[in-house]
Design brief:
Largest interface: A-B, 24 and 18 residues
Distance between the termini of chain A: 70 Å
Structural class of chain B: mainly alpha
Radius of gyration of chain B: 30 Å
Distance between the termini of chain B: 78 Å
Largest sheet of chain B: 5 strands, mixed
Largest sheet of chain A: 9 strands, antiparallel
Structural class of chain A: alpha+beta
Strand content of chain A: 25-35%
Oligomer: heterodimer
Strand content of chain B: 5-15%
Helix content of chain A: 25-40%
Number of helices of chain A: 18
Shape of chain B: elongated
Radius of gyration of chain A: 35 Å
Number of strands of chain B: 5
C-alpha cells in the first residue's frame, strides 16, 4: 500500500487483498470513498483488428448505502455519468498500450463506497493505472489523474463535492511520467485562458506524485510483464515494398487541393485496391491484416510528411487557417429556435425547444446520492445519423460516442445559460454532414440557435478542434518536432496524434477535451494548442456575430407561454375537478400543464399561444357561473331548495349557481334538528340573507333566521373578493402573446 | 662545418686562421673534383662562416654550383636552397637561391622518398608558391607511405605556413585514421595544433586525437594541456571526457599551474561553452589565481578573460568593474584596428552582462556614446540565408512598421529581426513602443499587457560546435543576453532553413516557430 499526499488530501493505493484472480487489481481510496478496479486481458489474439479495450465504470447503490428504487431493486442499464466516466478512463489508459496489442482487455471499475464528499471518478482513473501497472498486461504506464478546481481564486486539487459546487473550473488531468499529458477534460465558467493554463500546470505537477507512488508500489511488488504471442504490426519488408508502390500516387492525391472528402477518399481507395492486389501477388503468404495495415502505414506516413515538411494540408490550407464557415438562423417557423452551422464539409442543424420547468430531468434519489447531480433544466442532445458520413447503420438508441460528444457541447454552452430562465431548454444538434469537429460545430450551432430563440445567453460560444502531427526521435523516443493544425478534417484526426477540442467565448474557456493518441505530450504543446485554438475561436465568433450578434429581444411567437391563475379556495375543487379530471383533460386536449404554486395560485404552461387561448377558454367555461353574478353582502335573495339534508337544506340563489348549504342553525329562531320540522320541501322558495363568505373555508354564509326576528338590524354592504379573476401574464411573454 | 656547429661563437677566429686560408686555396684549385654532396655542404659551411662575397674562393664555389645544377640530385638542390635561405642574406646568395628554386620547381617529379619531400616542404616550400603546389601534389602521391612522424611534420609545416590544402589534409586525415599507428604524445599534440591552426574539421581525426590524448592525460604537462585545449577550441571539437580531464588536470595541479596556462584553458572552455563537472572548484581556482593578477595582464587579455567568465556565467562583480572602469576601457573607444574593435565588441558584451544578468550591479558601465551601435555594427557581408530570411520576413510582416530587420542593440548583438505580438498573436507597430534594448529608442508607449517581443536569430554553420547543434560560447552568450532583455527567441538554424524548398514553406516555418516560442513561454 502507498499513500500519496495531494495538497491537503490523501490518496491511498493498495492491492493484493481483493479480486486476486484478476491479472491486475487495485483499490484506491480518498476519505471514505473507495474504488476497486480490475484489469484482465486475454492471452490469445482477438479477431478484431484494433485494440479491443473495454472500460466499464459502474455505480452501485450499495456504495452509497442505498437500495435502488426501481421495481427490480437492482441497478439496470448505465447512466450518462457512468458512460462518460468510462470514456474518460479509457482515454487515459488507451494511449499507453503498445502498438499492435490486439488482445481483448477489460477494465472494470467498481465503486465500493461513496462518502458524498470525495468524487470517485478520478480515483477510478488512478485505480485503472494501478491495476494495469501491477498486472502482467503489457502497458507503458503508469498514469496519474487529478481533478483541479478554482474556488475563490485558489487552485484546489481533488476538491470535495461541496467545494466543486462553487468552483469555476472542473478540470481532470491525466499525466504520464516526465510531466507529460495523456488526457484532459474540463468545463469552466468562462475562465481566462491564462488561469486555465495555470490549472493544467498545477494538475500535471500533482499527477507526477501519484505516478511516483504507483511506481514505488510496482517496484515493491516486482512485476514482470508477459510477452504477447504476437504484436500486430506490419513487417518492414512489406511496408517498404508498399512504399515503393504507392508513395508517389498517394503524394499526388494528398497534394491535390481540389479534392474534397469524398473524391479524396475515392482516390485513396483506388490506390489501396491496386496496391493491395500487387502486395498479395508479391507476398502470397502474408496475413491479410499485414497487407491492409502496410498500406495504412504508408498512407499515414505520406500524409504526415507533407504536414511536417511542407507546412501544407491536404486541402491546401496552412496550419492555422479555418475552413469556410457559414451560419444561418431561423430555419423553420414552428421551431422555438434554430440554426444551421457549416464549417467546411461539416454541417450541423441545431434546434431549441422550451418546456416547463417541471419537465427538466430529475435524477433518481439513489443516483443523486452517488453522483451528486441535481435537477437539470438545460440539456443538449447530439445525434450523429449514419447518413452524415454516407453510411448505413442503426438509428435507434444512443451510442457512447454521441453521448460523449453531446456532453462536451453541452458543457461548452452551459455557463452562458441564464440561471433564472423560466423554461427548461433543450438543444438538439443533428449532424447532417461530417468531416471533422462535429461536436465543436454543435457548440457553435447551439449558440446561434439559443440566440435565435431569444434565450438571453451572456455571450456567444464557439468551438474548434486542434490536431497534432509529431515526428519522434527514433533513438530517444521523444518528440523532436511537431505541427499543430487548426480546425481539423476527419482525415487529419485519423492520421494525426491528437484531437484537442476547445470551446469558449471571447473572454475565456467553457469546455475543453484533449483526446491524445500518443503516450503523452509535453505541456508546451498543450499551451500552444490552447493559444492556437483561442485565436481561431475568436475568428469564428466574428463570423457568427455577422449572422446574429446577440440574443433576440423576444422569443418566437410560436414559443411557450406561462401565465398564472388565481383560484379562490371555494372554487379550487371545481377548478381541479374530481381526481384532477379537469387538469388532465386540459392537458390531453391542449398540451397545457397546470401546476400549483401556492394555496390560490396555479401556473399554467402552454407550449404555444394558441394552446394558451384554448386553455383560457376551457378555464373560463369551467368557472363561468361564478363570473356572472355579483352577490351583495347583506342583501336578501329568494332561494330555491334543491335538497333536504339532516344538517340543513341545499339552496340555489340562481339556477346556474352551485347549491349552497343553509345550516339548521340558520333556518329559524327556534332550535331545529331537521328541516322537515318547518315543513320545508324540495322546490320550495324561501327568503335568505347573504353575509359574504367564511374567511376560513370560503363557503357562503346564508341565514333565514335573521329574517324571522322582529329586531333585525341593517348590516353595512361590503364588496368581497369572491370571483375568479385571471391573473396578469408574465411581462416577458405578454409581448409574444400580442 | 663540424667545428662550427660545436662552437659557433668561434667562427670569427676561424676565419682569421692561416691554416683555414690555406685549406680554402687548396679547395679552390681542385674544385672540379669535389663530389656533389660535399660541394653542397661546402657552400653551406661557407655561408655559415660569413665569408665575404668578395672572396674569390666563395665565388668559385658558387660558380661551380651553377655549372652543376643540372647534374645535382634533387635533394642536393634542396639542401643548397635551404642554406641560401637560412644562412645568408646577401644579394649573391639570394640570386643563387632564385636559380635553385627554378630548378626545384621544374624537377619536382624527381622526388622519390618521403624524407626528401618532407624536408623540402619544411625548409624551402614557403619560398615559392608554385613549388609548394607541386610539392603538395607529390605529397598526395607519397602520403600513403608516410609514417606518423612524416605526417606530423607535414601538418606542422602546413600550420606554420597557414596553408589550408584541403585535398592534402583529407588524405593525411584518412591515413591517420585508417592506419594502426601508435601515436606518441608529441605527435598527437602537434597534430592537434595543426588541425586547430588550420581550422580543418575532420570528425574521425578529432575523435581519435581526443581518445588517444585522454589516455595520455596523466603524463601531460600543464603547458601541453593548455595548448591542447586551445587546439580543440580552435577545432570547435568538444569532447566532454577530454575536457573534463583538462579541468581535472588543472585542479590536480592547482598549486603550480601558471597563470598563462590557466588562461588558455579558460578561454578554450568559454569558446566551446564547456562547464566542468566540478564547476565550483574550478572557478574558485580561476578567481583565486586571477584575483590579484588581472590588472597586471595585457588589457586585451583582461577583456578576453572577463568575457570568457561572462560566457560561462562565472564573472564576479569586481571583475566586471575592473574592465568597465572608464580609465580602463577608454583605450579601446574609437579604436580603429580590427583587434581593438574585436576587444571593444567584447566590452559591449561584458557591459550587457552587467546590465542584464547582475541586478545589483551599480556601476561603472560603458558611457552612452559607447553603447550606441556604430555604422560598422551592421556592416557585414550578407549571407544567402540572411537575405532569404529577410525576404521571407518582409512578406510575413506585410508592412514595414510591423517589425524591424537588422536591429543593432546596445548589447553588442544584432538581431536579424524584431517583432512585437499582441496577446492574439497579431503584429504591433514595433517602434511605437518603448524598447530598452535600443540605445536610441523611438517609441514612448508601454507595450500592452500580454504582448510578447520576439527576436529572430539566424545561426549559420560556423556558429556551431563541430558536428553538433550546440552553439559556440559566444552565441550562447548572445542568446542569453537577448532572453534576459525580455525577448522570446525564434532560432533559425541553417540546417532547418536548408530543408525548406518554397517561399510558402519558409513563411509557414517562421510562423510555426513563432507560435512555438510563445508556447514555450506559456509552458514555464
Amino acid at each position: 500500500a502507498v499513500a500519496v499526499d495531494l495538497g491537503n488530501r490523501k490518496l491511498e493505493i493498495s492491492s493484493g487483498k481483493l479480486a486476486r484472480f484478476a491479472d491486475g487489481s487495485a483499490v484506491v481510496q480518498s476519505g471514505d470513498t473507495a474504488v476497486m478496479v480490475t484489469a484482465v486481458s486475454k492471452t490469445k489474439p482477438s479477431p478484431s483488428q484494433f485494440m479491443p479495450l473495454v472500460v466499464d465504470y459502474r455505480q452501485k447503490a450499495a456504495a452509497a448505502g442505498r437500495i435502488p428504487t426501481n421495481y427490480l431493486r437492482r441497478e439496470i442499464g448505465t447512466s450518462d455519468k457512468e458512460i462518460l466516466t468510462s470514456r474518460i478512463i479509457d482515454r487515459s489508459i488507451r494511449p499507453l498500450f503498445p502498438a499492435g496489442y490486439f488482445y481483448d482487455t477489460q477494465v472494470l471499475c467498481n465503486l465500493l463506497a461513496v462518502d458524498g464528499v470525495n468524487e470517485p471518478d478520478v480515483l477510478a482513473i488512478n485505480g485503472a493505472s494501478v491495476a494495469l501497472s501491477l498486472s502482467d498486461i503489457p502497458w507503458n504506464g503508469p498514469v496519474g489523474a487529478v481533478r483541479i478546481g478554482i474556488i475563490d481564486g485558489e487552485y484546489v486539487v481533488n476538491p470535495t463535492r461541496k467545494e466543486m459546487s462553487s468552483s469555476t473550473l472542473n478540470l481532470v488531468v491525466a499525466g504520464a511520467p516526465k510531466s507529460q499529458i495523456v488526457m484532459l477534460e474540463a468545463s469552466a465558467e468562462n475562465i481566462l485562458q491564462q488561469d486555465f493554463c495555470h490549472a493544467i500546470k498545477v494538475g500535471v505537477k500533482y499527477t507526477q506524485q501519484i505516478i511516483q507512488g504507483i511506481q514505488q508500489l510496482v517496484k515493491e511488488t516486482g512485476v514482470t510483464k508477459r510477452t504477447p504471442q504476437k504484436l500486430f504490426t506490419p513487417s518492414p519488408e512489406i511496408v517498404k515494398y508498399t512504399h515503393k508502390l504507392a508513395m508517389e500516387r498517394l503524394y499526388a492525391v494528398f497534394t491535390d487541393y481540389e479534392h474534397d472528402k469524398v473524391s479524396r477518399d475515392e482516390a485513396v481507395n483506388k490506390i489501396r485496391l491496386d496496391t493491395e492486389e500487387q502486395l498479395k501477388e508479391k507476398f502470397p503468404e502474408a496475413d491479410p491484416y499485414e497487407i491492409i495495415e502496410s498500406f495504412n502505414v504508408v498512407a499515414k506516413e505520406v500524409f504526415r510528411s507533407i504536414v511536417l515538411n511542407e507546412y501544407k494540408r491536404c486541402d491546401g490550407r496552412d496550419l492555422t487557417s479555418l475552413r469556410n464557415v457559414s451560419c444561418e438562423v431561423d430555419m423553420f417557423k414552428t421551431l422555438h429556435g434554430s440554426a444551421l452551422f457549416q464549417r467546411g464539409q461539416t454541417q450541423v442543424l441545431c434546434t431549441v425547444t422550451f418546456d416547463s420547468l417541471e419537465s427538466g430531468i430529475k435524477s433518481d434519489q439513489v443516483i443523486t446520492a452517488i453522483n451528486g447531480i441535481k435537477d437539470k433544466n438545460f440539456m443538449l442532445h447530439y445525434e450523429f445519423p449514419p447518413y452524415a458520413t454516407n453510411e448505413i447503420g442503426k438509428v435507434t438508441g444512443l451510442n457512447r460516442r454521441e453521448l460523449g460528444h453531446g456532453a462536451l457541447a453541452e458543457k461548452a454552452l452551459y455557463p452562458v445559460i441564464p440561471r433564472d430562465f423560466p423554461f427548461t431548454i433543450r438543444v438538439t444538434s443533428e449532424v447532417l454532414e461530417s468531416n471533422g469537429s462535429s461536436s465543436m460545430a454543435s457548440a457553435c450551432g447551439g449558440s446561434l440557435a439559443l440566440m435565435d430563440s431569444g434565450v438571453p445567453i451572456s455571450s456567444a460560444v464557439a468551438g474548434v478542434a486542434i490536431g497534432l502531427v509529431t515526428k519522434t526521435d527514433p533513438e530517444k523516443g521523444e518528440i523532436e518536432d511537431y505541427r499543430l493544425l487548426t480546425d481539423i478534417l476527419g482525415i487529419e484526426d485519423y492520421n494525426g496524434d491528437m484531437d484537442f477540442k476547445i470551446a469558449g467565448t471571447n473572454k475565456g474557456i467553457t469546455a475543453l477535451q484533449a483526446d491524445i493518441k500518443l503516450p503523452g505530450i509535453p505541456i508546451k504543446i498543450v499551451m500552444e494548442a490552447i493559444q492556437q485554438a483561442s485565436v481561431a475561436k475568436k475568428e469564428i465568433l466574428q463570423i457568427m456575430n455577422k449572422t446574429i450578434s446577440k440574443p433576440r429581444a423576444s422569443r418566437k411567437e410560436n414559443g411557450p407561454v406561462v401565465e398564472t391563475v388565481q383560484v379562490p379556495l371555494s372554487k379550487r375543487a371545481k377548478f381541479v375537478g374530481p381526481g384532477g379530471y379537469n387538469l388532465k383533460k386540459l392537458q390531453a386536449e391542449t398540451g397545457v400543464t397546470i401546476s400549483q404554486v401556492d394555496e390560490e395560485t396555479f401556473s399554467v404552461f402552454a407550449p404555444t399561444p394558441s394552446a394558451m387561448h384554448e386553455a383560457r377558454d376551457f378555464i373560463t367555461e369551467i368557472c363561468k357561473d361564478d363570473q356572472e353574478q355579483q352577490l351583495e353582502f347583506g342583501a336578501v335573495y329568494t332561494a330555491t331548495i334543491t335538497e333536504i339534508r339532516d344538517t340543513g337544506v341545499m339552496v340555489k340563489l340562481y339556477p346556474n349557481m352551485t347549491a349552497v348549504l343553509l345550516h339548521n342553525t340558520q333556518l329559524d329562531q327556534r332550535k331545529i334538528k331537521h328541516p322537515t320540522a318547518l315543513g320545508l320541501e324540495v322546490g320550495q322558495e324561501i327568503q335568505v340573507k347573504y353575509f359574504g363568505r367564511d374567511p376560513a373555508d370560503g363557503r357562503m354564509r346564508l341565514s333565514r333566521k335573521v329574517l324571522q326576528s322582529p329586531a333585525t338590524t341593517v348590516v353595512r354592504t361590503l364588496n368581497d373578493r369572491s370571483s375568479i379573476v385571471m391573473g396578469e401574464p408574465i411581462s416577458q411573454s405578454s409581448s409574444n402573446s400580442q | 662545418s663540424h667545428l662550427l656547429s660545436e662552437k659557433p661563437e668561434d667562427k670569427g677566429l676561424l676565419i682569421q686562421d692561416a691554416h683555414f686560408h690555406q685549406l680554402l686555396c687548396l679547395l679552390n684549385s681542385q674544385i672540379a673534383s669535389v663530389w656533389h654532396g660535399t660541394l653542397s655542404k661546402l657552400l653551406g659551411s661557407l655561408y655559415a662562416l660569413g665569408i665575404p662575397k668578395a672572396s674569390k674562393e666563395l665565388q668559385s664555389v658558387e660558380q661551380e654550383v651553377r655549372w652543376r645544377m643540372r647534374k645535382l640530385k634533387y635533394k642536393h638542390l634542396a639542401f643548397l636552397a635551404e642554406s641560401c635561405a637560412t644562412l645568408s642574406q646577401e644579394q649573391h646568395s639570394q640570386e643563387l637561391l632564385a636559380e635553385l628554386l627554378t630548378h626545384l620547381e621544374r624537377r619536382w617529379t624527381e622526388i622519390e622518398d618521403s624524407h626528401t619531400l618532407v624536408t623540402v616542404m619544411m625548409k624551402v616550400g614557403h619560398l615559392s608558391e608554385p613549388l609548394m603546389n607541386r610539392l603538395e601534389d607529390k605529397c598526395l602521391e607519397l602520403v600513403e607511405h608516410f609514417g606518423p612522424n612524416e605526417l606530423r611534420k607535414v601538418l606542422v609545416m602546413l600550420a606554420a605556413q597557414s596553408r589550408r590544402s584541403v585535398p592534402l589534409l583529407r588524405a593525411i586525415s584518412y591515413h591517420l585514421v585508417q592506419k594502426p599507428f601508435s601515436l606518441t604524445k608529441d605527435v598527437l599534440l602537434d597534430v592537434a595544433y595543426a588541425y586547430g591552426k588550420l581550422s580543418f574539421h575532420q570528425t574521425q581525426v578529432s575523435q581519435r586525437l581526443a581518445t588517444d590524448l585522454l589516455s595520455l592525460m596523466p603524463s601531460l604537462t600543464s603547458g601541453e594541456v593548455a595548448h591542447c585545449a586551445k587546439s580543440f577550441a580552435l577545432l570547435k571539437w568538444l569532447s566532454l571526457p577530454l575536457f573534463e580531464a583538462f579541468a581535472q588536470h588543472v585542479l590536480n595541479r592547482a598549486q603550480d599551474i601558471t597563470l598563462p596556462h590557466l588562461c588558455s584553458v579558460l578561454l578554450a572552455f568559454a569558446r566551446l561553452n564547456f562547464h566542468p563537472d566540478q564547476e565550483d572548484q574550478f572557478f574558485s581556482l580561476v578567481h583565486e589565481k586571477l584575483g590579484s593578477e588581472l590588472p597586471g595582464l595585457e588589457p586585451a587579455l583582461q577583456v578576453d578573460l572577463v568575457w570568457a567568465l561572462c560566457v560561462l556565467q562565472q564573472a564576479r562583480e569586481a571583475e566586471l568593474q575592473a574592465v568597465l572602469h572608464p580609465e580602463f576601457h577608454i583605450q579601446f573607444l574609437g579604436g580603429k584596428s580590427q583587434k581593438d574593435q574585436n576587444t571593444f565588441q567584447k566590452l559591449l558584451h561584458i557591459n550587457a552582462t552587467a546590465l542584464l544578468e547582475y541586478p545589483e550591479y551599480s556601476g561603472p558601465l560603458l558611457p552612452a556614446s559607447a553603447v550606441a551601435p556604430g555604422p560598422s555594427a551592421l556592416d557585414r557581408k550578407v549571407t544567402p540565408l540572411q537575405k532569404e530570411l529577410q525576404e521571407t520576413l518582409k512578406g510575413l510582416l506585410g508592412s514595414a512598421d510591423k517589425g524591424s530587420l537588422e536591429v543593432a542593440t546596445q548589447y553588442g548583438w544584432v538581431l536579424d529581426a524584431e517583432v512585437l505580438l499582441d496577446s492574439d498573436g497579431e503584429f504591433l507597430p514595433v517602434r511605437d513602443f518603448v524598447a530598452p534594448h535600443l540605445a536610441q529608442p523611438t517609441g514612448s508607449q508601454s507595450p500592452p499587457p500580454g504582448s510578447k517581443r520576439l527576436a529572430f536569430l539566424r545561426w549559420e554553420f560556423p556558429n556551431f560546435n563541430s558536428r553538433s547543434k550546440d552553439l559556440l560560447g559566444r552565441f550562447v552568450l548572445a542568446r542569453r543576453h537577448i532572453v534576459a532583455a525580455g525577448f522570446l527567441i525564434v532560432d533559425v538554424p541553417f540546417y532547418e532553413w536548408l530543408e525548406l524548398k518554397s517561399e510558402w514553406q519558409k513563411g509557414a516555418y517562421l510562423k510555426d516557430k513563432m507560435r512555438k516560442a510563445v508556447a514555450e513561454e506559456l509552458a514555464k
